[in-house]
């Protein structure tokens, strides 16, 4: 399926972006972010976006670009602590926020990909997370009902892909990216390396190519460290 491979990130997103759409964006912190695709969403100028992502980048990087450009109407996230712009927009009432426990966010996305409209979890029971949601009792414990998450588009980043779209992720970048690939109408993946068909061991493939619509070789691989912590070397 060589027609899945596009020459540039702009070409890979051509014809599929529109105002008011819902976009899933992969990554965990600054690891596994679709670094090449996010700037193209910014440059396309689409607005009124709902973005589903663990976090929203960091100051000057990643999804922060879309926040700074006023393109995001609502964030569905689990962690917002390192993004001062995110904080200020929310406090000023300029950004809607649906905050999720991290595991619940991952499971809501997985459920969307698996066709499961709702599930029950103990996480969040008795907190504001459960406000307005049905709570039921199972085997003597309360569980809150959560609903699936699905999107018009998933933009994700992988380590390797073959022309059919079979993907391999590396270490922390495996967080959120694989489940998002299954939960969107269209999945566009940027990869560090495109290998020949058959080069990937079948048992090592994390995401089958049936979930991938478009592939592009990444043009940005900054691999930033979000918060560097060091200690003095021993004498």
What does this structure look like?
The protein is α/β, with parallel strands linked by helices. It has 6 helices and 12 strands. The strands form 2 sheets. Strands 1, 2, 3, 4, 5, 9, 10, 11 and 12 form a 9-stranded mixed beta sheet that branches.
Biggest sheet statistics? 9 strands, mixed
% residues in beta strands: 25-35%
Structural class: alpha/beta
CATH class: Alpha Beta
Q: Output the radius of gyration.
A: 18 Å
Q: Averaged pLDDT, please?
A: 94
The CATH topology assignment is Glutaconate Coenzyme A-transferase
By CATH, the architecture is named 3-Layer(aba) Sandwich
Instruction: Provide the low-confidence segments as ranges.
Output: none
Q: What count of helical segments does DSSP give?
A: 6
User: What is the domain tally?
Assistant: 1
- Please provide the count of β strands: 12
Seen as an oligomer or otherwise, the chain set is single chain
* Full CATH superfamily name: Glutaconate Coenzyme A-transferase
| Termini gap | 57 Å
């Amino acid at each position: 399926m060589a027609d899945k491979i596009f020459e540039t990130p702009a070409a890979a997103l051509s014809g599929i972006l529109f105002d008011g759409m819902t976009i899933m964006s992969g990554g965990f912190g600054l690891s596994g972010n679709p670094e090449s695709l996010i700037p193209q969403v910014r440059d396309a100028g689409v607005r009124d976006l709902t973005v589903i992502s663990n976090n929203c980048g960091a100051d000057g990087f990643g999804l922060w670009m879309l926040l700074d450009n006023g393109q995001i109407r609502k964030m569905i996230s689990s962690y917002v602590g390192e993004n001062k712009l995110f904080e200020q927009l929310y406090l000023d009432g300029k950004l809607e926020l649906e905050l999720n426990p991290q595991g619940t966010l991952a499971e809501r996305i997985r459920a969307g990909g698996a066709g499961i409209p709702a599930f029950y979890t103990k996480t969040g029971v008795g907190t504001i997370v459960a406000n307005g949601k049905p709570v039921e009792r199972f085997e003597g414990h309360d569980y809150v009902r959560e609903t699936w998450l699905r999107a018009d588009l998933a933009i994700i980043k992988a380590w390797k892909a073959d022309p059919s779209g079979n993907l391999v992720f590396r270490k922390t970048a495996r967080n959120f990216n694989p489940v998002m690939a299954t939960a969107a109408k269209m999945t566009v993946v940027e990869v560090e390396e495109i290998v020949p068909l058959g080069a990937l061991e079948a048992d090592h493939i994390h995401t089958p190519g049936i979930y991938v619509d478009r592939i592009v070789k990444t043009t940005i691989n900054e691999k930033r460290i979000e918060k560097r912590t060091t200690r003095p070397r021993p004498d």
